[in-house]
Amino acid sequence: MLGPLTSTLAVTLGLAVAAHQYLEHRAQGSLTHIHTNDTLYDKKTYGHILDYDKHSLILHGQRTLILSGEFHYWRLPDKSRWRPILEQYRSAGLNCIRIYFHWGFHSPSQGQYIFDGNRDIDYLLHVCEELGLYVMAAPGPYICAETQAGGFPIWLTAKREVRLRHMKTNFWKEYDPTFMDYCVEYFQHILPILARHQITSGSGGCILGLQVENESFQHVFGYPIGLHDDMRVLAKTARDCGITVPLFTNDGFEEGSFIVKDDPKRNKKGFGIDLYGFDKYVVFTPNSEPTSWVVGRDPSFLEEWDPATVISELDKMEKKVRAFGHANQRTPIFIPELQGGWFNHYGIQYTYDAIYRFYGDQYTKLMLDTVFSQGCTMLNFYMFYGGTNWGTIGDADVYTSYDYSACIREHGLMSGRLRKLRQGILFLQSFSDIMVTTDAVSSTKAFTVKSSLDKTVCQQRRSLVVGAKGPVELTFIRNFSPKKLDRFELRAIVKEGQGTLLTRLSCHLAYKASFIALGNYSTLNPDIHLILSATPIHVRSFSADSKKEIWIAALATSGPTEMAFSAGAVIREAGGQNARASDIQLQESPENKDVVVLSIPEGAKSAHVTLHGSNKSSTDPSLHIVFLDQDALSTLYCYYDNRHSEKRSHSQGELDFKDMASSPKVVTWGSYNAKYDPHLKTLAIESTESESEVHVLLFGQATSSTTVGTSIYGTGLPYQVISLKENQTALEKQQSTSTWVNQHHQGLLHAEWETRTTDFTTFAWQDCPRVSASSDLFQKVNFDFHFTSGHIIYRGTFKTREKVQQQSLLPRHRPVSLKINMRNRVIVYVNGVCIGSHMTYSRQLLMPGAKMGYDPVSFGSHTFLISQEALEAAFASRQGSAAASAQTEHHDQEHEIILVIDSFGLSRQPFVVDDIRNPRGLLSARVLGNDVLKGSESWQVAGVDVTQLKMAYGSTGFPDEHSEQGWRAVTERPSIIPDSGVSWWRTRFEGPPSESASSNSSSSSQASVNPTVNIPLCCRIEGEFSAMIILNDVLVGRYFGSDSPQHDFYLMDGLVHKAGSGQTNELKLMIYGSNATVGEFNKVRIQILPWVVEDAQGTLAQWSGNAAFDMDEADATELRTGPFWTLKQTFTL
């Protein structure tokens, strides 16, 4: 028996190997005349501008960390908000953005490409250059991004003969030259615009790299899926269109796709791209996990995420990526998409606010610290600001809001998560000369820092930058303690002679929080040598005369704040708020006489310490440390000059303090937000009502208002305080805004409404033929008609044979029903009577209406019983006719069906699934009943052909959406009367104030005389009905009652006409529903009001941005709720 079994296994194994070799050969393609060498980045020509090695990018000779955030301009329909949002990116410490360029957004019809208005990407890139933001460009052609068809144009999806992404079916690609021709055409339109903005263009350009395709796996768990010819043609087209920067990929996860091979024959085999990138989404919300379809979950509950997930996903990342070999051993570890939140779905009972709470304030910073512990120096947070799926630009996986629980919330609030993340970014920026070149310590046994608490030291790295006592050490502290404790000891191991001594330091770190502990670092004065800081250091800068090194560090929330130095350091000056000089100690370590421990007592609000060397002159360099509490740190802002076009790095592996590009020029704290303009030398300050002053440090520049003397933060700092309450115009503006907000906290809408009703008889109906006379299926679905934005409307007719009795003049009916299969939501009217509604949608894979992947379209049918009332409604129109006068007769009665079907959007075809053409609209229909005349049933369809529009994603789908006919003024507010069909309602409201009028009041010479306010508005809707929300002729939201968690809709600031502009705002809603408004039951509630958030009365460190509407007084007090608004003033420094 053993012999035959062995033979069978050998044959099976041989066949499997042969099949895999065939698939590998097939995937490598036939277009081998396009070689890897043809598209490689030309370092010889451009390397002096942009170069790279295994550690980092090198820009103009300066090693540079790439700290980026995703930005989707097409999710901000108001172009005027692009710059303010990007300014927030810069204020958060980022130096780069990645942009998905959306093919379908620019190409509404075949051959048409639009690059003006809110599609003006040339303007967008100019803004990035002005703000000092680099750009990683991702033009697709496929972008995924939870957008309809993954960014492919609607007109292209309608070409059924074209294999989108070469997908012939699920898990199987077959190269399609026709599809590639369309992709090349798109590239030839967009890439020349991008090419003008490359860093290699020599004109101050911002683009550092161009992403080819998106999450295009070469292999998925060993299965060859990616087509080399696809990548060849796209890369070659990019070069032909003038792209000279490096090309890069983004594997969906670490699979080693399309790496440049060291094999000399690489030009004849596979194809490789310059830089290998891979995405990292680590913790999914429980209802979004890839396995959520296997095990049922409560959609209203989010269980706590498990730290073990982070450990398993990230802590071996560097080793795994380097193990791919070849060029991966010579290029930076690069994550084009690092998780910055997560998106939400239809059918879920919780909102993005719950997702924000699920991840917590520390999550994004935890991701940052952890990937840096793995040697990453290039990353992009997806998302940093999510924006809005306005119109119908989102796919079936997401509803209107794309808040993503990101650092910047949808309504523009800079959250506590951003503020925690910024503290980590500022450390990386300040010490970037150290962070750009590090190697991991080989084993935990070799770590020079230990912890008293398990699972709190995750990694240690040593910088290639060497100080006076060897390489700088970076210990990555991450609290995943199973005991969830937040107080522990860090033990620095100091080798003295043949022995090893420990120095114990107190450390406070919240559970699931992290920071990078700096160690073995020599300051400007070698006698002041840091052995280890047990508290985060956020900022490092230097005085203009290079005589003082300045740090800004965190005070521990609980317990003492401690740092260990070599014994050569002494305190020259100390003090603080709630911390007397005598309370601040620099004492010999009990374990090691050669170490002194600096300790700030618990309870200090702020502190400062100046250290000198014990054996040197007082004129020698000193270290000045400013300690701030979490309230102040949450407002910490730094301006770094990140653009290195005129800089050269003089460091050759040693600390060089004379040319420190990483030193911030301006540091502030005390305000909601700040932005420094280096050209105008102005500081724009955004403040909340409770903020009164801003603390400013200026480095390396002369200013008239800076005091280098004594302050509450010590002596000799280039320090000043800006009062936010001094400018009389600003005070008046703040007071008037506060009054306005309080007056309108219940809403802004006028009492006057107008309404009209859709008349379906006016539509241009076209036939909707079946597959065959006997089939219930239809030949065409939504994209065949180009009806892909919002609704598709169907009109069916059928006849019944009826017997009328003179006594009642009413027909005698036997049961009649309507069986339909459709995607995704439908409301049904028969003879003008609403008979019900239904939704076919599933978050689970392989189910009818699946949000992504295979949708079993033969399943999902729903049967409506047509009520006697609906059938009799047709007969009512015959009363009084000649036929109705007969005593008894048989007659054929025609009936009309109207189906209003709302599509959630085309699926996006991620990874290896073929789902863009999953049908939407009406798939099949049949009227059933003994009285139904055979062959009498027919169907027509109407909608809006989006290829005839300038914007393919801006329509409700109703042909009469712009009609001005039939409007009438009413005294009542909107309500639901199901049999009235689809109704339209509109009203007007005045926008919030923005700019102040010029004032002759006295004001500070520093401050601007025209302060502005930002008051984001929310449209709140309650009730069981459907609505399309249109603001000033722009479709901004879609409301689905309890089928979607969203009830609060952001009204984009750039679309709202402000008070004093001479224009009022029009709010228009298209409304329908199957449940009537009766008294308080299903009452339609529509409000426009300022955005009310949690913690508005608390510190910025706690701001989540979570909505807090309609809370009772006790809950509102507990959560410190209030309206979110800010005042902006500009000061000359």
From TrEMBL:
Keyword Transmembrane among record annotations: no
Presence of keyword Signal: yes
Organism superkingdom: Eukaryota
Residues covered by the Glycoside hydrolase 35 catalytic domain: 56-423
A molecular-function term among this protein's GO annotations: hydrolase activity, hydrolyzing O-glycosyl compounds
Family statement: Belongs to the glycosyl hydrolase 35 family.
Biological processes, Gene Ontology terms: carbohydrate metabolic process
Keyword terms of this UniProt record: Signal
Protein name: Glycoside hydrolase 35 catalytic domain-containing protein
Signal peptide: 1-18
